[in-house]
Design a protein that fits this description.
Blueprint (H helix, E strand, L loop, with lengths): L2 H9 L4 E5 L5 H10 L4 E5 L3 H8 L10 H8 L4 E4 L10 E4 L14 H13 L5 E4 L7 H10 L11 E4 L18 E5 L2 H11 L6 E3 L3 H31 L4 H8 L23 H11 L5 H27 L8 E5 L14 H11 L3 E5 L25 H5 L3 E4 L8 H7 L3 E3 L11 E3 L1
Parallel strand pairs: 1-2, 1-4, 2-3, 4-5, 5-6, 7-8, 9-10, 9-11, 11-12, 12-13
Antiparallel strand pairs: 6-7
């Protein structure tokens, strides 16, 4: 089979697609390939629990829904496996595995490298490989290419390689995988054309750039833009609080300007897999070129400092009520990194829990989307906690309630009525109230 034959298979939707990594990126992408493009798709994951759940027609990502999983699994177009030997069966392989940071806040490419080595063992001629994991510019045509070419196949001749950044926004009702424009950049023109042929049947718009590096830089730029602007409003929150000004009131008013302003909201710290991590991928890579990304690093410092700021505000508020943090009962509302999803990745709530634990507080939490605090790579020593049913009795028993995530399902009138003290990091309550401390 030649590149032209692969292109024809993709355009005729007879190609077999493999997606490695069935998390918040890989699973919705797999479903989209099946539902929109009618591609036969195989999902690969090392987590047997995920594969078993899918084969049982169950979902482990709340917003996707079990009905959607069942529809895909019974269509005859989708299957899931832990058997990586089956990578040789597919025509195109999409890599959607985590790219975290090390403890030194440098790129941790462990998952990407391990995945690519598994692919290299089974790589055959005329396969297309696309990396979707967010990473530094040069990963695709340096790291990934070098490992794949250890198979004795040559990139651009025997196999084809491209990068297409994931742009998932879990739980967003307005934008789904299929309706978010897909940026694509190959290590050469043929790879770009093949990647376009892969994604065009599945998404409404494909945007091509000149190279894999440009595509990698596109994703970093998007998330650095958000990180910097969030840092700005977090800093404004601290300044305006000292001045007795409500930052949420100011931002709401500023957002009425129909041009020249884009509203970002402050919070207790950054969460999600992208914004807390991606800027550091660029700052790390920039050092290779002898450059310092001072602006980006300053934004990171501001955002990283926010959990400590929140706990300090909590401590001050308890002191004013003649209570110490040590021994106080603190209920955290929300473990997910953003409202109305069951995604806890890099949530600021974990840092808040750790800081409260170190201060001797007695911690509990309520989250309608996360019944049990999950085990997290970055937080191996978190206490074992289960979500508590939100009730007047529970709220009465707490010295403070800390709103970390503003889930819509929470009855905030009940919270305000029955709590002694509410630390509001999300602007849930507008206007002054004797029980509410904005943080």
């Amino acid at each position: 089979m030649s590149a032209q034959e692969l292109r024809n298979k993709l355009k005729s939707k007879t190609a077999h697609i493999g997606v490695v990594g069935l998390g918040y990126v890989g699973l919705p992408l797999s479903l989209t390939f099946v539902e929109r493009a009618k591609f036969r798709t195989t999902g690969f994951d090392i987590d047997e629990k995920k594969v078993s759940s899918l084969n049982a027609h169950e979902t482990y990502i709340e917003y996707l829904g079990a009905a959607r999983i069942k529809g895909a699994m019974t269509s005859g177009k989708f299957d899931a496996t832990t058997d990586f030997d089956r990578l040789s069966e597919v025509d195109a392989i999409v890599i959607a595995v985590p790219t975290p940071l090390t403890k030194q806040r440098e790129p941790d490419m462990t998952y990407v490298e391990a995945t690519v080595r598994e692919i290299a063992k089974r790589l055959r001629r005329d396969q297309l490989v696309v990396l979707e994991s967010t990473t530094y510019p040069g990963t695709t045509d340096e790291l990934v290419r070098d490992i794949l070419e250890e198979s004795d196949l040559e990139c651009g001749q025997d196999f084809f390689l491209a990068f297409s950044p994931e742009r998932e926004d879990p739980g967003n009702p307005d934008y789904k995988t299929a309706t978010i424009p897909k940026v694509v950049g190959g290590v050469d023109q043929i790879a770009t054309e093949l990647a376009v042929a892969l994604y065009e049947p599945a998404v409404t718009e494909v945007v091509t750039v000149s190279s894999a590096r440009a595509a990698e830089a596109t994703k970093l730029t998007e998330n650095i833009f958000r990180a910097v602007n969030i840092a700005l409003v977090n800093e404004l929150k601290v300044v305006y609080d000292k001045m007795g000004i409500d930052v949420w009131e100011v931002l709401d008013a500023a957002a009425t300007k129909p041009f020249g302003f884009m509203k970002f909201s402050p919070g207790p710290g950054l969460g999600g897999h992208c914004i807390p991590l991606d800027p550091f991928y660029l700052t790390w890579k920039a050092r290779e070129y002898g450059l310092s990304t001072k602006f980006i690093e300053l934004a990171g410092e501001v955002n990283v400092s926010m959990p400590a700021y929140v706990i300090n505000r909590l401590q001050q508020a308890l002191n004013e009520r003649e209570r110490a943090v040590r021994g106080s009962r603190v209920l955290i509302l929300g473990i997910a990194y953003k409202k109305d999803v069951d995604d806890p990745r890099e949530s600021a709530s974990f840092e808040l829990i750790e800081l409260l634990r170190q201060a001797g507080a007695r911690i509990s939490y309520h989250d309608p989307h996360i019944p049990t605090v999950p085990r997290m790579r970055s937080w191996p020593d978190l206490p074992e906690l289960d979500s508590q049913e939100l009730s007047a009795e529970l709220l009465h028993s707490q010295d403070a309630v800390l709103i970390a995530t503003n889930h819509s399902a929470v009855d905030y009138d009940l919270v305000l009525e029955h709590s002694r003290l509410v630390i509001d990091t999300r602007g849930v309550y507008r206007g002054p109230h004797e029980k509410v401390v904005k943080a």
